[in-house]
User: Fold these one by one.
Assistant:
Number 1:
Amino acid sequence: MQSLMEVEVKLSLKHSTDHHQLLTLLSAFYIKTLHQHNLFFDTPTSSLSSQHAFLRLQFLDKDTRCFISLKWKPTLINGVSRVEEDGEEVDPVMAKDCVENPLKLFDLESRVVKRIIEEFGVDSELGMLCLGGFENVREVYAWRGLKLVVDETKYEFGTKYEVECEDKDPEKVKRLLEEYLKENGIEYDYSEKSKFAVFRAGNSKLP
């Protein structure tokens, strides 16, 4: 079945002031803003989590669009994230029904749902739960030939700021980004956890 290896540089901005300063610096390269609402699902016995996988519904454009994604085998080392991913767009009205009744996920005509059944052993008889989620405001920029995104992720327990860039040469991108941030006095660290991992940890001490 179809899948991609998503390779991203992920740097965590230390303070809201760093986030604001970076947005100001990048304003000339602005493309668009995305308002994302991410919700996650698993069985009551954690069939997906136990296999280092998660299922996500991501709503966009005031819930007028929705994507379903399966991600698995994540690693995040020295600010470089690698994860297997498969995703597709689904009907947003049907997706909303799945939030209210997660068993309706099995009614979606989706290769991703087929995949969690066939490859991860998820069965409708196990039941499904909506684990909750978080909001993310994503600013997208065209910067030095790269597609750069700056995220403001709003969890129930706090807000995290990150700059991310997907590229086949993450080490080169990381060097460029680090030089740029240092030149402009923006404080950052290598991200230590994915957004999903931060959400599941539920810890107000954001990495």
Number 2:
Amino acid sequence: MPMKVDVLESTLVAPSEKTPRFGLWLSNLDLAAPRSHTPLVYYYPAPMPGGGEDFFSPHRLRTALARALVLFYPLAGRLGVDDGGRLQVNCNGEGALFVVAGADCAGEDLFGNYEPSPELRRMLVPFAPAGDPCLLAMFQVTFLKCGGVVLGTGIHHGTMDGIGAAHFIQTWTGLARGLSVSEACPSPPFHDRTLLGRRSPPHVDLDHPVYSPAYLTGHPRHFETRLYSVSPKLLADLKSQCAPGVSTYGAIAGHLWRSMCVARGLAPDSDTRLRVTANVRHRLRPQLPRQFCGNAILRDLVTVKVGDVLAQPLGFLADSIRKGLEDIDDAYVRSVIDYLELESGDGGLQAAPGQLMPESDMWVVSWLGMPVYDADFGWGAPRFVAPAQMFGSGTAYVMQRANRDDGIAVLFALEPQYQQHFEDAFYGE
């Protein structure tokens, strides 16, 4: 039976103090990010008996949100354009959307066998069109019949990457717990994106096929998403097949890549590409401030023959991924910024609607090290955090579990006809 969600209240929450009013310039990396909201869900189980009189009090959350928006004031603004037609954030303090809802289902119904979907996103995360002017931050607290709560968040990707969003959530939750502003946010966000401006004159020194619209030549394919558990034993087994010191991401991404090639039956003499992302805050010279609150994530492709993916040891793939990530340095970042400037005119190359990665490729996003389970509003940490929706086949998220002793989890979207082959390959080794 479909889940029913009733909206109980919907309000705009403005910053609790006066904030700067101006047009915030967006970098080419901001403009190249998806022009949509990133939908996430945080599940909080019901409190112990007697411990939840004000469990997820909307008033407490709204009050803390208003205070957090003083520091993260771009989220209270609207997406607009400058005099030249370039996208910018109009910092006007109009506020973020805050919704309170009730659902007729229990947490186990949603998260016992979790599968993100457009339907789940529509029910648990507020939706607003990405037009102009556009709300930049939306939050929904949904009370479940089991006594638990789901927090759905939608932060526009053009305003900040996942690291910036996690910084905001940490601040909001700290303020809700009663911390002072300086305690909740000891390093205030840095909003100036001009450190990621183009060179004069712009010049492209390297190839950047991942940013070319010609790369996304695939078309929408029906897919299903599964959550795969990686036990500490399986992770140790994978790492033992690689060189000492291999990263968890490198071992898991390589194993996913191989399992995908097996499942899809790719031709051994063809190329397959792994799409990787890297935080470049510390890779630039000089480095960006750690609290930089824009988009400072870059993409690249690691290309290998399918035959090598299948025949070479896992360490070969992990090493290829490591080398690909190491190549993303200051020169690479500056070249990407200039490429976007020269190729798009407004700095933001966007794929045509419906275009996706070719079936030979996959994209593995790492949430390892992201403090998503620190999101404690005062009633305990979430039990589960994940994307509410996946946006294309071949996309995977590698995530920590709430209890680190439980290992890690992989969300992977794949065509249904390949699911069983993938699972056999993923767990068969």
Number 3:
Amino acid sequence: MLSSVVDSSLRHRNSEDDGMDGSSPLYHRYGEQSISSREGSHHSQKLALFRPSADTVDLGYHTLDNNVCRIPSSPSTAITARKQLFQQRHIYALGLCDLDDTQLLKIFSWLSTRDRCALSQTCRRLWEIAWHPSLWKEVEVRHPQSASIALNTLARRGLYTSIRRLVLDGATSLSGVFNSLPFSSLTSLSIRHSKRVSDSNVTTILDNCIHLKDLDLTDCGSITKAYTRIAALQLQTLDLSDCHEVNDSGLVLSLSRMPHLSCLYLRRCFCITDTSLVAIASYCGGLRQLSVSDCARITDFGVRELAACLGPSLRYFSVGKCDQVSDAGLLVVARHCYKLRYLNARGCEALSDSATVALARGCPRIRALDLGKCDIGDATLEALSTGCPNLKKLSLCGCERISDTGLEALAYYVRGLQQLNIGECPRVTWVGYRAVKRYCRRCVIEHTNPGFSS
């Protein structure tokens, strides 16, 4: 998207550079020439951005040409319509250009990448404001085929030194732009859903973007590792979710260069095993957030090793749908990770009340807990009601042993509860539902019982 707009802006500027001496009405700030003297050049100009009338068809920002407007066939009516259109354009450009640069920069800072590029096509002054480096600290390119072109365009203007956050959604090619340009200010990079991004591309990025702190490679199917030749990266967040080719050896190699990593997401990385969890515990001692949900090869051994090494530094932990994780692993979590705030154990069907009661007593700071499809009952809810007073979100979906007794105890003591999922809990009746509604007045309740009133 950005590349198409940028290229359109460049083509327009090149074609109109010869007319910068005042031949175009949009380049005059104070309107020295009369309307009649400029009607002849009207057909060769781009339309300025204005609020479209009822007879205007919006075909997109890059097609805002005069042929878009439905001008009546009558010559006299057409001339009148063109005069009115010109007046709207001229007043619009005149109003913006009357502002000083500081005010214009403030206005442009609230616009999207697409809108800034579109406004840059209206006049020379707005073109200069739109390409001010301070406006290009965050860039999003969501046109898959043109990510490389867009980056090269920004590079030609020297803006790569200003970019701090860059999003390339679905990029099909990067063509070595990170190899030739050191993005010295880049701290956050997201390359999501890019099937053609390879390990060598990622290595080049990590080698050249030395200040990078956040890297998101979600659904980059060809990635096996995020390796760099630099001894130690400043990277703090790494997201490799849905990178199905990532395995233990590649992850161990990657983590060996990331001593400052605090957030790691490995959702649906099906190839990783307990070896990866042992490596995480060894190389990333300050890790605060970890998700290995849907990684079916993770077992209690890896969870125990991880919890024992990370201890209180771990605040967010997800083992959802890791069906080999049971009480043996989460008992160690309850013993060592007493600062835990979020736990997702959905689908761990071997989990019972013994582990969840220990979690409620050992991790009093828990605010969000997902125990869906676990073999737990009212004992867990009673332990949560006394052990976790700050609980805000709780999912019990599919917990068939939960009943009204446990819900009443939970609702009475944990009145700050904001979200509760009791779907597919056959033993919960309107009595438990009404207790939650009575004591937890801000709670949003999800359920599958048609008998419950809203």
